[in-house]
User: Fold these one by one.
Assistant:
Number 1:
Amino acid sequence: MKRNYVLETPGEMKAMYQAYNEEMVELSKKNGKIVLLYGDFPHGAAGELLQKEHPDRIYDVGIAEANLISTAAGLAGGGYLPFTHCHSIFAIGRAYNQIRQNVAFDKLNVKIVLCNSGMLLAFMGGSHQIIEEIAAIRVIPNMTLVSPADPISTKKATAAIARHVGPVALRLSGSPVPTMYRDDFPFELGKAAALTDGSDATIISTGMVLSDALEAVDTLEKEGIKVRLLDMHTIKPIDEEAILKAARETGAIVTVEDSSIIGGLGGAVTEVVAENSPVPVKRVGVKDRFGQAGTVPELKEEYELSARHIAQAVREVVKKK
Amino acid sequence: MAHDENLIQKLTEKARIIRRDAVEMIKAGDGGWIGGSFSQADIIAALMFHHMKHDPKNPHREDRDRLIVSKAHCCETVYAALGEAGYFSKELYQSYGKMGATLQAHTERIVPGIEYSGGSLGEGLSFALGEALAARIDAPRDSSGRPIPRYRAFCIVGDGESNEGQVWEAVMASVHYKVDNLVAIVDHNKFQSGASVEERMNMMPWADKWKAFGWDTTEIDGHDFEAILTALENADKVKGKPHAIIAHTTKCKGVPSFENKNLHFCKLSDEMYAEAMEALK
């Protein structure tokens, strides 16, 4: 099967936060309205640049996530374009009401960068592995939620959310991820990217597990199962058209995420499918459990997020057609 | 230096009008936050009708001073001040708190002149800090290299609200970043929703806490216009740190028989309404 947008073989491993920073260096030079705020989180190349060249556009409020988000909202009220940076678990867990009330309620132009997002965060353990963020953010009105898969789509997502006027949360995995996309990948907010065009089933993936999903597509192709692979990099607003087209044309769907399937991408896709075009769905993701320490491959195995698990889910869902 | 008598008289009259109009709103909405709305009324009047730079005909002008009422349930005297200043027609008062109304029961930014949508306590000072920081970015500098901010941010903080930890996160950060165009006015009316602040959560001593964090701090009688104006003017003179004004106030100030009774959220019976209107005529 033909592959769209992606490299023949995965490229350089890079942390999403590094790729984000590379893009933010360029954006911060061009756009004097950008203000970077941190909750005692590493400042990265963009923060270091502003610290040197424009210290009145960078603030670190210390370990105080609530103040981080509300202060950013005030800066947006004052006409600036603030980006906040802290561990996702603490943005969501300790500043949820601030995101809801100070940012989303008034559609203020704040970009909330959810660092060390998702279950596949090595070593740190369950206190830092967030499984709730997709469900928590997508239920808030006015929010846009973006979850890129690799360094290239991270850069493109960063540029896109800086252009978009309104509140956005950006999920960035903490673990290094392989470069999947070619430089010419046409990232568009709210539009899923179809990496393959199979007709037997569809895998809808979000975030860093896209590489595992693509590996599963290869495995299944050898077995004669032709799978469509959608990168749902924008979780809200979700691309209903692409989901329903997949349901109609392939008749079976597997969702894949490094997050809880309860209310996560699995929940979001299932809502769309159940109401409009019911087909069998299986959700690969974290099944109502907290995380623990481990390497990324170990975590993928333990939480059933590997290519092997994704392929098995597709075989099962195809049987239900 | 004493302020002009005419000015004090004007502000006294404005404060009477906004309290009276707030009573009309609370009666029309069949409920409201009369206690905290009235304790802050003189401070609101001093800010809106004298101290703050703002333009009711151009509510979004970029260099306007910002008023952030963090205890955003105390909205009626704020709406009344905006209506009196000409931001919108006083006809809106009759729809207060009703389905589809612009004037919601907690301040919202959809209302011309309102900067901050509150209702979740403890967050407004952080928002005001962000607004104050925005006024300093790319601002011209004075001879000692300090930014000359394009505007000031004033934040009314409740005493009960100060139980929230985030208030103190903002207190800490405002000093760290030397945000001297930020003025926090604590409406210390001695009551919170369910009890006196001392009984519910004793936070004495108030001024010492702000001072210890490094704020330029004063304590005043929050119903004495001379004291309010002097404190606000002094805040403009002290550079390099944010300013806290601990304003000792009386809950429900303005209707003697209601004062200090902890009327927090309340509905006005016909008798209470008549009594309030008589006191404020």
Note: The beta strands of chain B are 66-69, 153-158, 182-188, 216-221, 243-248.
Number 2:
Amino acid sequence: MDEQQKRVFAERLERIQAQKADPVPAPEMPEIVQGLNELPPLPPVNPPGGNGGGFGPIRTLLILVILLAMGGFGAFYASEMSDGALDLTDVQSVTPIETPAQAVQEPPNPLLAFAVDRPEARSPGQRTATDRGWEHTLGSVATPDGAQVQVADIASGFDPSRLDSRPARIETFQPNENCTLRRPRDGEVVRNVRLGAGTGFTEVHAVSDAGIADAILTHSQAALFSPKSHEFGRTAKGRMNRVDVFVTDTSGPVYLVLQALSGNTLWNVHRGQGVQIAHIAMIGNTSGIIAPNGVAFEALRIADFGINFDFEAHDVAQPCMIAPYRLPKDFWEGQKKAAKGNALFENQMFTFNSGHRAFSAWYTEVLGVDPETGLTEAEGAAHALVGPVPPGLLGFRPLAGQTIHVTEAERLLIGDDALIEAHQALMIAAAGGDVAAIQPETRRVQR
Amino acid sequence: MRGIFGVIVFILMALPLAWFYVAMYWGFTITKDIAAFQSGETLELPIMPPVKWLEGRRQVKDAFSPDEITRGRSVSYSIEVPFADMLQDGEAMPDRALAELYATLRTPAYFMPICDEILGTLAEACELGSFKADVRYPEDRRHWSTTMEHPETGLAILTASLNYLPAYPMGNPGIVPNGEIEAARVELFDGKQVPNTVEGRAEIYAEALALCTAMREAFGNCSLRSVSMEPRRAKRDPDAEPHLTATVAFRVMVDKTKYRRAAVQAALDEIVATRLASTATGSDG
């Protein structure tokens, strides 16, 4: 290659360089430059003040968004996996009532490491609209007219942060064998509380032997073969949910009907100034009560009457449809979703409507009034008001020291530790005295 | 914004290119190993190919791990015990709601003798894998005929699988080029039953081992996936001696460019046919 050619080529190169606004040189440049020492130095690869890799702001933003999204997913799954350990919501306002009461003694064998599910701590004094109506957290009261009321407006001496979960004693009583209740007498006013489930915390457990056996089987399989599984430590579920009922209705002797569709419920009934309570009837699974002195009570256990809960089953007359369904309201999220054509909620609301119709027929026949009369309802609540907000405060009656009356159950236990011990004792007995027998040592060829 | 497409295209093109190099390197190491192996050099061969997708790795480890008890090698068996016999002397009969729990938690002890049985022949070490128990009563019409002798206390059906570390040679799956695990299974003795005794079961283990040895001779490696022994009850004669049938599954690492699953099963069927023929002539003579 002669000098002339070289120069022409270099000039052309320079022109091309000048034309290019982009300061980044073509990658093959350095080799050619070696032979062209006389040429002026090439512009720097990264001009000062340039944006480095040539990433435009949009691209940088896009990459940032992708990375953040990935980080977000990571954090989400991490929090899922760490069992909510990363859940920072509500930490400030959490009531310490849900913290473990007493650490159960570390078992000698991990096969006996049972754990009790405790409800999640949530910020107190609030209510949220859910698919099936209001869900009240501790301190917020379900009211007949739907007004927002706190326990502090009704009763004194209620401390949501105080751990008050253990009554002193349990006495049992038989639920009704027949599917009927005492007929209200002349002058009695029927008032009723109907909940999806109670949400107050107790350490009273109503469990069956079969439930405990089932939990032990699930737990032992997990303990032996997948110790990271959430089934490790599984215990039978049967915690009673406390609901404080404040009766303030003075329009006549009150015939109180307390109902919960699911869960076991312990009704803690308070009587306001000048209030007469004539009778208390409970409908639910295992029902318990702390009744004012001298008030008679009875209970119906839903499971005793073989109710068919299949879809559309409530359309057919059932002799004893006592499952206390609530009538869907327009503010229910589920009702709104159904109105928008969400098939899942259309079905659910259909079940609630037909279930309520069937329940209403039974209730009206037995009590002579329809179940929407004198009703206080919620999807979930730990306190319910029956009557108006009283002019003066009632005294709140804590659980501690009380004797509660509960419908008969195979096992009624006070204390989460008692529940764990029941599981441990049964597991040891079932294994024949020593749980180590469940996990025999590996056999090896003897040499 | 246009720049992003360049980046995407670059990544999409770079991925197969990167994989190409990895795969080439893997192939290269295997070729080198095989050449060295064939020329008679002693080699420290990895048991697993250097690169394999995770699922494959798990499967290879499950089937061929030389030092771990895995779930990929098991012997399963089931035992019928009158539930009352599972209780200790003087122990009260628990409530029926608890019978399944009692039976299940007492199941392991019943299977450790089976572990001892396979030690030395099949297994170097043996431990209990999964287990369950079912207590049946004559009220359940399906089980009336089997449980009628224990109307009150029930009959427990215990099932367990034992996992073990093989005592038999498995060959080296690591030297198989384009290796992929294929499985094949066969019912032993052409479905014929053997007595449900220590001797009968020993016969099953020996036959399973013999078949695996033949498979190893054919493919260079073999792992006994499972030996499943099913107790059989003579339908008409409840007093007849209990018998067993057994199904055995094998896993071999084969060159996937040479063999398909059907070929592995065909090879096993042929081995079984040859053995059946030879035992038939053997018993004739």
Note: The helical segments of chain A are 3-19, 29-34, 57-81, 209-225, 333-339, 343-367, 416-430.
